[in-house]
Here is the input.
Amino acid sequence: MGLLVMVKSDIEYFDLRNDGNIVMYLGSTKNPNYQIRLKLPNTKKYIRKSTQTTNFEVGKRFGLELYEELNFRIRSGEKIDSPTYQKVFEEWKKYKISVGITNKGNSWNKEIKNVEDYSVNYFKNRRIDTIKTEDFSRFWEWRKVNYKRVIPKNSSLNRERVSILGLMNFCVERGYILKLPKIPKSTTDSFERKPTFTDSEYKKISRNLREWVKEGVKKGKWKDRYIFQQYFLILSNSGMRIGELRNLKWEDIRVKKDNSDPLIVKVKGKSGSREVVFNKGSDLYVQRMYDLRKNHLNRTPNLDEPIFINYSTNKPLISLKNGFFSILKYCNIPIKKGGMNRSLYSLRSFYITKRLEEDVSIHLLSRNVGSGVDMIEKYYSHIITSSLSKQLTKTTQNITQQKPTQPYFWITHTKPKQITHKK
Here is the structure.
């Protein structure tokens, strides 16, 4: 049987197998190369490719081989008509906004921004199923010399990587790709030690927090500042991560026998669930949050409710970084230290630093903060001493011991103390 030729609008179409599945035709005058149109099993749209040649036989061979290759991939379970990186990103973005799911402590809008700023521009029209490990390796090389303001650090690039992994996991769930590609980390021979606070800086903030909260009365920000005060003190006296404290609920607090026991809570972190022991005396900060919420509701809070909750939406508080910047400005303490910006995570570094300075066992500390011993040794080797033997609940000099006027709520539920402030 001869080759079936069709003519439409002065364009000749060559049906290479006489079944309509592989059709070749000449392009426009601007693009004289032969074009291929394929109709593959289980695909909704035609696939069109340029043969990159004006030679009929070479173009025909290209079309037949391409059809066999794509047909084999379909039989192997791959999707041929998968969407582009740009299209998947838009779909993922709508999903993230609608459900507000975060990844490893990031807010959803920051996670979206991590993907959108650079990777969307780089991959854009690439089909999502064609992006492999080597493509991501080339992306990191490109990314290191393409930036908006400052040269990206490896820590910043690896945060981008976590967000991109979130997008690719979404692709697996939606069936756009069969398995998650390995996305290499941006590596470096050096490491960045996160900035923290000196003892004098921390004491200055602790002292000024009370006046800063009182000042909030006139500005209509008393409650926000009061909540941040407890947030600041809990982070610096527990070593919890931001995301762990955000998701902490009343039901996660272990019942105590008496007030002399340290407060212990259960958190869900990067390495799974673990129990966190608070510094002695820091029970008070959690109690304040309980009393505040109980007064607002005029009843006992639900046990499955987050401790740090948005009183308007009844959802976890996403970010308190504005309070952090405000108190540093109030105390005249600079954001930058050693060329790096301090953040709420600096309070976790402060906690670890103080515990190491007090010769707490690095193994106990590792268990309490949810980080490996090797990571602590790497980032805090300048602090670790030879006599690491005292117990984790050892009292620190930064906690002012305050005896409660009544049993804490997690021992005996009592009528909450009314919270008042003078105007």
User: Anything to note?
Assistant: The chain is about 40% helix and 10% strand.
